[in-house]
Amino acid sequence: MKEALFYEKAANQSIKCRLCPHHCVIGEGKVGLCGVRENQGGKLYTLNYGKLSALQIDPIEKKPLYSFMPNTQTFSVGSYGCNLGCIFCQNFRIAKSVPETVAKEPEEIVLLAEKMGTPSISYTYNEPAMFYEFVYDTAKLAKQQGLKNVMVTNGYIEKEPLQTLMPYMDALNIDLKSFRNETYQKYCNGHLSPVMDTIRFACRHSHVEVTTLVVTEMNDDEEELVELFQWLAAVDENIPLHLSRYFPRYRYDKEPTEVSFMQKMKQEAERFLNHVFLGNV
Ligand code: SF4
Questions:
Q1: What is the pLDDT of residues 76-104, one digit of tens each?
Q2: Would the CB of 43 count as within 6 Å of ligand 1?
Q3: Is the Cβ–Cβ distance between 220 and 214 less than 8 Å?
């Protein structure tokens, strides 16, 4: 186990984690909301350092990133754990439980990527902030070796860890799950504003694309989505937006999003943004 970054001691042997906006106060022997950071003897440890649930090569477009190193392959790694609790989670097997993993060091990941001839490494499948220390160590090393780093993230991370990571991140795909704080609270156990902050900050330092999963009876609301498009365009009208169609998963079983609605929303989004793509249709 590796000692975690970004925490401080609190009262009675407790620890306050500062990696994400939940700011969990974690008692001795307990884990935070994400389940992957544990207080042992007044120190915070990451439980999944180098424990990888998936290693594979994907087209970069699968992340999805359409305007970053197009037509290249990326060496993709994922671990497990998530700091949001979306009831429609599309990756719940690794987000919400401990899957089978293989142990790898950052050096091995960089060597593998070089051996495979992929020009980038992607931290993906589960939330990269959940294996932050491993992502940080690997990304730093990869950068030294001339490789690019990509993060596919829910954007639910505190500013300091994000700032620390950004010099090594070349591209991010950030989920914007809804443009309503109540929806983040009700369906994902999170809040909207930290995600907006992440998008604003990240796109000043790196290539950013945004994905919105359009979920039946959760955010398939024209008024809400138009507000989202307008806000994103005000940040930067050239940010590519991926509108992705939802399918029933995990604890949410509403019908898949209507394709006609997806097409209509793409047209609406194109009134404000220069690059809009549909996914899963
Ligand atoms: S990273 Fe995990 S332990 Fe830390 S604040 Fe977020 S949910 Fe809590």
A1: 999 999 999 999 998 888 888 899 999 99
A2: no
A3: yes
